[in-house]
Design a protein that fits this description.
By secondary structure, the chain is α/β, with parallel strands linked by helices. Helices cover about 45% and strands about 20% of the residues. Strands 1, 2, 3, 4, 5, 6, 7 and 8 form an eight-stranded mixed β-sheet that branches. Strand 4, helix 5 and strand 5 form a beta-alpha-beta unit. Helix 6 crosses helix 7 and helix 9 crosses helix 10.
Length: about 260
Amino acid sequence: MKREQLIKNGMKYEFKNEVQSDTHILTLSGVVAKPDLWDMIMENETINAQDIASALDDVETDILVRINSGGGDVFEGIEIYNYLKNHPSKVTVEVTAVAASAASIITMAGDEVIMDTGSSLMIHEASTFAWGNKGELKKAINALETIDGSLADIYNERTGIDKAELDELLTGETWFTADEAVEKGFADRKSSRRAPEMVETPEEEENFEAAIGSGQFDELKEMFNTLKADIDAMKEQPNENPKPKEPQAKSGFGRFLF
């Protein structure tokens, strides 16, 4: 995605540098780009190699990079990718929402890549603006083809997907869900946080019985078993309620929300 489009879309910038439990955590959100004069005038803050190097040059502990970005400058993304890839510490990259375009390149640098539930990853061909005679346009096309080859090398090294398939994925501007990114090899695993099931152990049951007294415990246990039996009996009864009438389809289009 072009930097101007990302800024217009309101991609929120965040650069948080902290240490938790012997892990250095770098939280990145926003546009990937090397700051230029326009950024300084408009006070546009960006994810860039200089800031990341300043934050991580002296780090010797494990590093966790949490990223949420729609991308930006491909060359800045490749520079950040190579910096993280060559860092002596173990680097884990966690995609918290989206890693698209140049941000997907940065993601490939992780020794381990984690996709949070609901997150997505997108890869596509490089793009640029060009003007001038046919010679100048041919130079632009040659440059884009070279960049696309470099991108394919990065994704191939990470996933093992052959170059022909990667070319199709790049040309098609392909989006991956968290599960699809893991399946294709762009990520190692999906992060999923579920509430633990409450399973009462015999020891916990004995402690509960001792706390309230054996007589009351037996009464509660009998009530529970009776209630469970009633519920099981209701499940076995046939459903006599009429099937609700399905709504009729209407022509036209609704609003797409995402």
